[in-house]
Amino acid sequence: MRSILNFLRMACLAAAIVLLLGAIAPAVAQFGSRSIDVQQVYVQLPDLPLENQYVSRETGEVAQHNTLVSRMVQYHLLVANRIPTSRLDWKLTMADYLGANEWMRPGLYPGADTFRANPIEGDRAAIEQLNRAQRDALIDVLVGLFSASADAPNVPPRQVPAEPNAAQQLPR
């Protein structure tokens, strides 16, 4: 009898996990294709450090377009797997850079395998040099840009008739 109860308990737990994962996965997956022009961040925050002095292993040249913000976005989306439109998630990413939240694995950091020197320490130092207002401004700009780039749902726009017909009028 106990084995049957244990089996039923495990089956219910497994079903609950499958249902929960099915409900969560599509919401996260839809953010995978969103992107922003990171140069817009630097336009809005011109004092933000570029940190684009790293030399490519492949070409031996400085990768000027690979910046602190581009790596931070890659870390946020691909390594930490966080939502780009969530202010709280960006604050968690900021806390990662400041060493106050999750440990950032150097081998997984964007650019670790493409540059001669891993940019993680320089990027963390650059974020640590920002004051709270600058970090908050960076978060605001990132959330704003990702929110603006969010695709509208695949629902056709609602047509608003010029004059309501008799079927649409409310009773008086």
Would you kindly provide a brief summary of this structure?
The protein is mainly alpha-helical.
**Sequence of secondary-structure elements:** HHHHHH
Shape: globular
End-to-end distance, in Å? 65 Å
The helix count comes to 6
Largest sheet: none
How does this model look, in words?
- This protein is an all-alpha fold and 172 residues long.
- The protein folds into two domains: 1-30; 34-149, no CATH class.
- The chain is 49% helix and 0% strand.
- It has helices at residues 2-29, 39-44, 68-79, 87-97, 120-129, 132-149.
- Helix 4 (87-97) crosses helix 6 (132-149).
- It is globular and about 70 Å long.
- The chain starts with a helix and ends in a 23-residue tail after the last helix.
